[in-house]
Design a protein that fits this description.
Layout (H helix, E strand, L loop, with lengths): L4 E4 L5 H8 L3 E4 L8 H8 L4 E2 L9 H4 L7 E3 L10 H7 L3 E2 L6 H16 L2 H9 L19 E5 L3 H12 L3 E5 L7 H4 L2 E2 L2 H7 L2 E4 L13 H5 L6 E4 L8 H10 L4 E4 L12 H4 L3 E3 L8 H19 L17
Helix pairs in contact: 1-13, 5-7
Length: 325
């Protein structure tokens, strides 16, 4: 009996592919360039599952001739490249990889807070440039203790960040669409968006990208923040109007920014945001550790295996079409 076919339209970790090959035939695009969409549509006609990579847009148009697809699963928490409503309408369960990267992303997020607040990168460059000891002063940072952090999007990762912030002696405010029921347990305080912007010394974004959060941080939002504020984004790049952020840094509306995600992404080395000298950018490495990436691909493989066998996906976004036990 032949194995089911899983399409992987891009490069992927070897350990994940080896695990997948135990029960499926892998049809993989191995070029570094993006896979042409028309070719992907052709491949999907005979496929049983899809493992999206490289932020390929998955919707009814892509799957209209893919009559045998039983499951779509990808190795990420976010899924703004997936039209979940379309998959639900087609009766296809979609799996992502929450939880396994919670602590890893929180570590990176708070690392950005610490590095930016104490200007670690600039002060390290001060030493390597030979300026130390030549009647020049290093760059002053600011303390995190007795400061306030405002987290926009207090989900699992946001809570993990809040624990680290409290360990540094910070007060934690947050804003979600709805107030959480466990504020007293986690020592967090729900406030309006305007109050968060006005009171926070550090504003940290951990929200997903939706129609409501697209360019949530625009020129108006930055003007509501303290001029001494540090802005950190580990959510999604398009939540921030990049031009507005660059302007806010240049004009002194806010003091500094640290980003793991950008718009555009990747960010060109000559981008105006980088020319401000007030922005630390890392290349979307929130979950980029070997252990976490291994765990992510293994959970994806598990979701694909379950879907092919019409068993419930371990982590299913559209539960209404998940397979029943």
């Amino acid at each position: 009996m032949s194995k089911p076919v899983v399409v992987v339209p891009g490069l992927q970790r070897r350990d994940g592919l080896e695990a997948l090959s135990q029960f499926a035939t892998i049809k993989q695009w191995k070029e570094a360039s993006p896979m042409p969409r028309d070719l992907l549509k052709e491949w999907l006609k005979d496929a049983d599952a899809l493992w999206p990579v490289n932020k390929i847009q998955v919707d009814k148009d892509l799957l209209k001739d893919a009559k045998n697809i039983k499951v779509v699963a990808q190795s990420s928490v976010g899924y703004d490249n997936i039209n979940v409503d379309d998959l639900t309408e087609l009766g296809i369960p979609f799996g992502n990889t929450p939880d396994v990267l919670t602590e890893t992303v929180a570590e990176l997020a708070f690392t950005l807070v610490v590095c930016a607040s104490r200007r670690i990168v600039e002060n390290a460059a001060f030493v390597t440039s030979g300026a130390w000891g030549k009647n020049k002063q290093p760059i002053k940072g600011f303390d995190l203790s007795r400061r306030t952090i405002g987290i926009v999007g207090l989900g699992k990762i946001g809570l993990s960040i809040s624990r680290r912030a409290r360990a540094f002696g910070m007060t934690v405010l947050y804003h979600n669409r709805h107030q959480r029921s466990d504020d007293s347990l986690y020592m967090t305080t729900y406030v309006s968006m305007d109050e968060l912007l006005a009171k926070s010394d550090v504003v940290l974004v951990m929200a997903p990208l939706t129609e409501e959060t697209y360019h949530l941080f625009d020129e108006t939002a930055f003007k509501k923040m303290k001029k001494t504020a540090l802005f950190v984004n580990v959510g999604r790049g398009k939540i921030v109007d990049t031009d507005a952020l660059a302007k806010a840094l240049e004009t002194g509306e806010i003091d500094y920014a640290a980003l793991d995600v950008t718009d555009p992404e990747p960010l060109p080395g000559n981008h105006p945001l980088l020319q401000t000298g007030k922005c630390l950018v890392v290349p979307h490495i929130g979950s980029y550790t070997d252990r976490t990436r291994h765990d992510m691909v293994m959970l994806t493989v598990e979701n694909i295996r379950n879907g092919l066998n019409k068993h419930p996906l371990t982590t299913c976004v559209n539960e209404e079409v998940n397979y029943k036990a």
